[in-house]
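Q: What residues go here?
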């Protein structure tokens, strides 16, 4: 009888062990897999602002596939700078063809023909102004390859500073930059979209005036 009792106890213990293992397997069928680190969530363009509901993440040439974050940030800097110039250019086409009081009002015709009519001294003034603006931007946002440590001079060329947000030069004379993060993001997205549209518009103005030699408002019937 004692032997049968011992067998009964052993059988019960084994049943308890197998039952426990079965319940554990049901709750966690992959065992220790739950302890694995989750893969990082993919962020389009490393999370930079610029994606709109339509067309969504837009990269038809798949340029972002193998691009490093430093390269993508550099592209964003270029996009913002060209977008700002594009907005000025698009507005300039429309304004200067109708209102041009400088230089005695003698600079006339399509905007693409205005540059050759500008007096030579103005070129020096324009070049100097652009140089100051670009030097200021470089000092704020770009790594100086001459003072970088731990890397060769060529490795630090065309590199933005880690603490620099592309396009943020700290220039806000009217104090309109929002303090609320969501409002700031919305305003940055508007600037990007307006800049993108302006670059297309300025290119279209150039092409149109090159084709027929007429001012933009002339093409529109005004």
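A:
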């Amino acid at each position: 009888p004692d032997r049968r009792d011992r067998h009964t106890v052993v059988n019960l213990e084994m049943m308890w062990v197998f039952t426990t293992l079965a319940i554990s397997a049901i709750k966690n069928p992959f065992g220790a897999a739950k302890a694995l680190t989750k893969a990082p969530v993919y962020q389009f363009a490393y999370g930079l602002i610029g994606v709109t509901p339509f067309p969504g993440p837009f990269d038809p040439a798949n340029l972002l596939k193998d691009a490093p974050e430093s390269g993508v940030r550099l592209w964003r800097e270029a996009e913002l700078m060209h977008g700002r110039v594009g907005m000025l250019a698009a507005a300039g086409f429309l304004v200067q063809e109708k209102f041009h009081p400088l230089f005695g009002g003698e600079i006339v015709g399509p905007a693409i023909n205005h540059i050759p009519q500008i007096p030579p001294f103005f070129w020096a003034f324009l070049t100097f102004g652009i140089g100051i603006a670009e030097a200021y931007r470089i000092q704020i946002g770009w790594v100086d390859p001459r003072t970088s440590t731990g890397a060769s001079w060529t490795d630090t060329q065309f590199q933005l500073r880690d603490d620099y947000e592309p396009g943020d030069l700290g220039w806000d004379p009217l104090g309109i930059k929002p303090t609320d993060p969501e409002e700031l993001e919305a305003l940055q997205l508007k600037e990007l979209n307006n800049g993108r549209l302006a670059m297309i518009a300025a290119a279209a103005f150039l092409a149109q005036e090159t084709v027929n030699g007429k001012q933009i408002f002339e093409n529109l019937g005004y």
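A: Context that may help when evaluating the design: The mean pLDDT is 81. Helices lie at 2-27, 69-96, 120-141, 181-212, 216-219.
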